[in-house]
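May I ask you to review the protein record following this short note?
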Amino acid sequence: MNIKDKEKLTKHIERNRVLTEITMFGRTVDVEVVPSDRLLDYIEKLTSPVKVPKFMVNWYEGIFADQFNLEKQKLDGNDIFRIIQDVIKVSNGESTWDDWAIDKTVSDYASEHEETFLSLLINCSYQNGYEVEEEPKWVVRIGKVYLTGNQSYSFAKEDATPFEIEKFALEAAEKTGGEIEKV
């Protein structure tokens, strides 16, 4: 659903307070009456940029990297269906043609965050975009001081060197006798 369709549908709902059919992917479907405020909230959610982790952005952009200009590329209903099929196959340990580069990490994310995953596919197909979630970072605290670099320390947490990968923070904490904190 593009912005123009969203505005048109929103006006129709506000005017009639009833929705009986929706056309998407070239098909028209009858819809049960839903309270218009709930429906408007859902439309807003569907057409707003979705927040996803950086690795999902890398996957999404990577499926178009070799063949297409990402800004002009859209997934159609068949593509989305095939991606979902591949996610299910990978989650069941089956092989795929690897058209969509679905690996266990993508499959696990899609299984654990179904609505967000579908929103990524649909929103980006209609050019509504995505936002990258800020990923957690960790610092090493040794007693009352924080590790700031190679054998440097500070009492201020904001001066600590953040680790982007928890495993590396844990290794540094083990070597220095400290512990990690999420920032």
User: Anything to note?
Assistant: Strands lie at 21-24, 27-30, 50-52, 130-132, 138-142, 145-149, 152-154, 179-182. The mean pLDDT is 79. Helices lie at 3-16, 36-47, 54-62, 77-91, 104-112, 114-125, 166-176.
